[in-house]
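Researcher: Next entry in the queue.
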Amino acid sequence: MAEANQMTEHNGASQRQMIEHFAKTIDPALNRRSGKVFYSGRAAFSRPTDLYLIGLNPGGDPTTQAAETIGSETARVLTQLPDRWSAYSDESWQNRKPGTHKMQPRVLHMLRQLERDPRETPASNLIFVRSRRETNLAGGVDELVDQCWPFHEAVIARLKPKVVVCFGQTTGGQLNRKLKANARPIAQFVEKNNRGWATTAYRAEGQIVIVATHPSIADWTNPEADPTPLIQEMLQAN
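Model: Structure for this entry, 238 residues:
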């Protein structure tokens, strides 16, 4: 029993050390702004992984959610929330039951199909600052991406994900720029509907970047719009 307790304490300490390393890469100038960095907890950011999920930025209202700052939300993940936690499965969005609001079930569907636990899958946003819409991002997308990039650079370097899934074209374009992905796609899924939106995979040095449709708009639970088989194919690719 004593050995088991010591092992648990060791694992917990290792998880804290790893996530604290990542937290230190967040620009302190962002800490008082409304937003968040971590969409999964200490366990997800504590070991190498083959999958990393990145959205563009936190949604919501930076005025009514002014108290939910990047600094306070980061501290909550580091010190208060369970090791195994996911914003997609465990957080209530707009007072809905956890895991049920709009894009949450779509992301959870994808992870179930991939046999991945959301609480063990690192997830974040390319930009940490909250806005109602992309066009409301004060400071400009490129500048904010550059300001937040040291965090993602550290995560990718330490966790070495094989596949980075980007929610939406803006996020994917920025990741391709930062990771110097090849401009020629290596695989693509086109929705089987009148809209015909595409999810496209690109090869970067060390990673495959998947520029997916955005689950806040595209219903990934619908087989006609589900990019999961492409993601699975890329995770299994050599």
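Model: The chain has one domain: 2-236.
Researcher: Noted, moving on.
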